[in-house]
């Protein structure tokens, strides 16, 4: 580890900290229906959408109607994207002449982008047409991110209001998230990416003469526009196969900085919006503090592990001074690769600028563990916030049991109904991840897809289901996922990780909204101070550690210990 590396990491976090408050205040105004600087331009467009679709923006929905609207919208999005991929050969903007995407891969891809997972069992530059990339994937990048933001705002209203039966209007929240937040920011970031050298063209490719005198065909396309919403919406799906390690997706250290900054900005600022909307900004800062502590710890461990180098190579006489550079781009190095890996897995983004499967045993464990913590550091746009609020409810419930008082959060009593739904949501991840991993580890045709035997092979399978169930989308590398088994089961994992989780969360929101919001009293456990932050971190670590440690012990932990002993498998 170097001083320069830590300076790079610190400046990035400071830049994100600088925008949290202004962006958070802006989003709070947007979702509260207040006038913003963009209202004169976007207001008439917003009203036009409501008129065309027959939506009454003043009519709110209860939790069940809100959830059903979200599910119906997601189903239509899935069917439209699936059809687009299956009929790709007959649609316009296909200069490469790509054929239809096979049924199982089209299912996996459609589910992936509708659930904001963006897991990719294909190479974009050799599989998808420009039309599929733009009208299919990029559109879903906007809509799936807006859906997550809408759900988080609905949960926030449940805590802010007192004795009501409605949480807002899903269609209004989704339109505002897209129109006022995602679209303007994406235009700015896309233009910045173009200035940094990312292609933005409808040409299929360009043929160039190499230094050796041979001809090489280089794929092109509308990369910058997809890259912008890929990061701002914490989607992570890349235009090219190697994602942000590709020089056309991430050419320089400055584009790398902008990638990470764009990933963090909306998710972190939305937590501040939560504090603003519930009338207590300290609550937002408390959640941000817990997220930041765990995320910085993940960055630190990953950076330290990669900077130490590979003990096996060191024993063979390789100088460890440069650390472990396998799977990393020289233009980024260990510091910015470790930062990218921790942020993308703590965020539910899924983009990568290095191959996680090439990290050391300990370095590869951290990204996997960050996903297993529930994707709340700060998680996907919206999904990270409502996931963190579930952990907050569990924390105050535990605190109430410890001191013998009725647990409360923001004036709402937390009772058996809320805890039942909270545990149902929290148990979805280990059930899906560990269940599918165990089955795949026993099936010969599933094991045949791993690239490396031994504990690293188990890590490949475990990482795949962790990433998909957590709606992250990053890949460990080595696993051949484009098979009927993995396309189908990984798709099911994505569906359960998104919708089987969010339905009980919305049920909690409906229950909390109907409760009276009581003022704080002398016996109220404060949820905006360091004691609560510590308890919240402990609950997150316990739930993640206790559920997944046995599986991690058989995979990356064994690999780490073997590397220290100089052994290979």
From TrEMBL:
<feature type="transmembrane region" description="Helical">
    <location>
        <begin position="424"/>
        <end position="447"/>
    </location>
</feature>
<feature type="transmembrane region" description="Helical">
    <location>
        <begin position="137"/>
        <end position="156"/>
    </location>
</feature>
<keyword id="KW-0812">Transmembrane</keyword>
<protein>
    <recommendedName>
        <fullName>Potassium-transporting ATPase potassium-binding subunit</fullName>
    </recommendedName>
</protein>
<keyword id="KW-0472">Membrane</keyword>
<comment type="function">
    <text>Part of the high-affinity ATP-driven potassium transport (or Kdp) system, which catalyzes the hydrolysis of ATP coupled with the electrogenic transport of potassium into the cytoplasm. This subunit binds the extracellular potassium ions and delivers the ions to the membrane domain of KdpB through an intramembrane tunnel.</text>
</comment>
<feature type="transmembrane region" description="Helical">
    <location>
        <begin position="531"/>
        <end position="554"/>
    </location>
</feature>
<feature type="transmembrane region" description="Helical">
    <location>
        <begin position="385"/>
        <end position="403"/>
    </location>
</feature>
<keyword id="KW-0630">Potassium</keyword>
<dbReference type="GO" id="GO:0008556">
    <property type="term" value="F:P-type potassium transmembrane transporter activity"/>
</dbReference>
<keyword id="KW-0614">Plasmid</keyword>
<feature type="transmembrane region" description="Helical">
    <location>
        <begin position="257"/>
        <end position="274"/>
    </location>
</feature>
<keyword id="KW-1133">Transmembrane helix</keyword>
<feature type="transmembrane region" description="Helical">
    <location>
        <begin position="6"/>
        <end position="28"/>
    </location>
</feature>
<keyword id="KW-1003">Cell membrane</keyword>
<feature type="transmembrane region" description="Helical">
    <location>
        <begin position="286"/>
        <end position="305"/>
    </location>
</feature>
<keyword id="KW-0633">Potassium transport</keyword>
<keyword id="KW-0813">Transport</keyword>
<dbReference type="Pfam" id="PF03814">
    <property type="entry name" value="KdpA"/>
</dbReference>
<feature type="transmembrane region" description="Helical">
    <location>
        <begin position="490"/>
        <end position="510"/>
    </location>
</feature>
<keyword id="KW-0406">Ion transport</keyword>
<dbReference type="GO" id="GO:0030955">
    <property type="term" value="F:potassium ion binding"/>
</dbReference>
<dbReference type="GO" id="GO:0005886">
    <property type="term" value="C:plasma membrane"/>
</dbReference>
<comment type="subunit">
    <text>The system is composed of three essential subunits: KdpA, KdpB and KdpC.</text>
</comment>
<feature type="transmembrane region" description="Helical">
    <location>
        <begin position="177"/>
        <end position="198"/>
    </location>
</feature>
<dbReference type="InterPro" id="IPR004623">
    <property type="entry name" value="KdpA"/>
</dbReference>
<feature type="transmembrane region" description="Helical">
    <location>
        <begin position="63"/>
        <end position="85"/>
    </location>
</feature>
<comment type="similarity">
    <text>Belongs to the KdpA family.</text>
</comment>
